[in-house]
Amino acid sequence: MKLLLATGNAGKLREFRRLLEPLGHSLASLADLGLTQAPEPASTFVENALLKARSGCAASGLPTLADDSGIVVPTLGGAPGVHSARYAEDEVGPDNQNRSPGNSPDTDNNARLLRELDGVTDRRAYFYCVLVLLRDADDPVPLIASGAWHGAIGRAPEGANGFGYDPLFRCASDGRSAATLSPDEKSARSHRGHAWRQLRDQLDQL
Q1: d(Cα 198, Cα 201) in Å, to the nearest integer?
Q2: Are 33 and 56 in contact (CB under 8 A)?
Q3: How far apart are CA 139 and CA 10, in angstroms?
Q4: What is the pLDDT of residues 33-66, one digit of tens each?
Q5: DSSP strand pairing (143-153 vs 124-134)
Q6: What is the pairing mode between strands 64-72 and 143-153?
Q7: Residue 21: what pLDDT?
Q8: CA angle at residue 52 from 151 to 164, to 5 degrees?
Q9: Catalytic residue among 68, 106, 108, 166
Q10: Which of these ranges, 21-30, 71-80, 140-149, 178-187, has the smallest mean pLDDT?
């Protein structure tokens, strides 16, 4: 099956290609088709994933897989949450003093999270992912799956693999940074891997 992955995130695209291509699915990105990502104005992961999937279907005519995911820190009231990808952009400071010219968005997002947790002892956190698959833009029965990955926020980045908050996230099972895991290890443990296996089971039942 040829699918559109409704994301502009290169890291997510790499991870999904590793998961889907061995099963015979081909995955086109928004960039491959000259499309832009839909806005994500909703306050929940599932609503944003549905919006992205429906927009991708309508624009491409392809069955569309959309992911909305992020990191949730309960002691911060659930932040960054649905704002994970733009956490540093949402930070307001005089004269944008917390911006770091030349840094990647991931670096700035991680830096803000560390600032928010400075002096905080309860650093528990979890990654959360919602996947939505729509077969066409008017599909009334979307396939929806979710997954979580529990751990804690470290006090400094560690590791060079992955993307996003991986360098700060320490796995609950063994304390390893997500950014020190191989791609196969990460797929076996991660929120995205869990959600995909749940969605795959639903596909198998169709």
Answers
A1: 5
A2: no
A3: 27
A4: 999 989 889 999 999 999 999 999 999 999 999 9
A5: antiparallel
A6: unpaired
A7: 86
A8: 30
A9: 68
A10: 21-30
Asked if the bond preceding 80 is cis, omega within 30° of 0, the reply is yes
Give the total residue count for the chain.
Answer: 206
Terminal-to-terminal C-alpha distance of the chain: 14
- Kindly state the helix (H) or strand (E) to which residue 94 belongs, with its residue range: none
Chain centre to alpha carbon of residue 206: 26
Residue 178 near residue 190, CB atoms below 8 Å: yes
Confidence of residue 88 (pLDDT cuts 50, 70, 90): very high
Q: What is the number of other CB atoms lying within 10 angstroms of the CB of residue 147?
A: 20
The predicted structure's pLDDT at residue 102 = 61
Show the DSSP H helices in the chain as ranges.
10-20, 45-60, 87-90, 105-116, 183-189, 191-205
Nearest alpha-carbon partner for 195 in 90, 65, 100, 82:
65
Pick from 143, 152, 192: nearest CA to 11:
192
Comparing C-alpha atoms, which of 36, 70, 29, 56 is closest to residue 163?
70
Among the residues of 61-158, which ranges form H helices? 87-90, 105-116
Asked about 122 being catalytic, the answer comes back as no
> pTM (2 decimals)?
0.91
Specify the DSSP class assigned to residue 160.
Answer: S
Hunting for tokens 């307001």 — which residue is that?
A: 92
Do 104 and 113 contact (CB within 8 A), yes or no? no
- Angstrom distance (rounded) from CA 93 to CA 57: 38
